[in-house]
Every structure is written in structure tokens, then in C-alpha cells.
Amino acid sequence: MSLASRIESLVVRVAQEFNDVRATAGNLANLTTADKSNLVAAINELKVAVSAATSIDDAQVATSTTYSSNKIVGLLDALKAEILGGADAAYDTLLELQQAVQSDQTGIAAVAAAIDKRVRFDAAQTLTVEEQSQARANIGAAASADVGNTETDFVAIFDGALT
Asked: pLDDT per residue over 53-86, tens digit each?
């Protein structure tokens, strides 16, 4: 089966899902917001209500309250500790990591040499036929000759599947 055939099958399946989503999205009249014109308007109405909330409640998350600054700082400190994962003080900031990397250029040279042997996506490269074949094999890619008709009009197929 060619890539074009597989994409066509995917497009038909996606169109079926769109139809299902449309059918199950719900009736706007059932919204409990005052503005029932569309979901964006209802969400914006909720946002205004949340923005107007002024009560502090450290015990629970709610749309009409907020945590105190002490609780927020505590949660941020806990997140920082989780991100650092017990890193030594000498390596617990980006600046310290930068300085450590800059002080050991032999490690950086080894990494740079390894990167030079990688297929690039940000710049053109000249690869041998063998290198191209190996790169495709490594990522499971097909050669351009195996792709199929790249001129297939998938929009027309999608539109046809929606009806």
C-alpha cells in the first residue's frame, strides 16, 4: 500500500472522528453560563468570574478562591526541589551548569564530534548513498521513490468524507 493510499485512509478516518466530535460536542443551550452563543464566549465568561475571585483558601482548589502567597511560594519551592532532584549546590542553577560545561572542554569536544556524525535538519548536508540509506533505516523512513503520488488532493478526499 503506498503512502498516498495510507494517508487517504487516515484522512477518511479523521473525517469520521470530526463527525463524531460534532455529534457529541453538546448543546450550547445546556451551558450554565449566561452567554451560550459559543464555547469561547462561555469560557471567557468563566475567565472573568475567576479573575474577579478574591477569597484566599489554602485548603482547596476552587474557581472562586486563590492560595495565599505563602502557599504559592511553598508549592514553588517544592517544585524546584523536585526539578533539582537533590543536585549539589554547585550544580543547582543554569549558570553553574554553564560554568561546569565551559571548564571541561574535552567532554564538549567529544559531544561535538559525535554530533558531527548525525543527520542534520537545520542545514544541508552531503551524504553518500550508503549514509542516506543507513539514516533512513535508522529512523524507519522510506525513500522518495516509495512514497507514492505526492500530488494527491487530500483536502478533496477529506471534504468528500465529511458528507
From this structure: 668 888 888 887 889 999 999 999 999 888 888 7
Query: How long a stretch of residues is the chain?
Result: 163
Q: Is the dihedral of CA 107, 111, 112, 114 positive or negative?
A: positive
Q: Nearest to residue 58, comparing CAs of 46, 49, 68, 48?
A: 68
Cβ 46 vs Cβ 35: under 8 Å:
no
Among the listed residues 60, 63, 30, the one whose alpha carbon sits nearest the alpha carbon of residue 46 = 63
Taking the model in full, what pTM does it have?
Answer: 0.28
Distance CA 118, CA 92 (A): 30
Residue with cell 517544585: 79
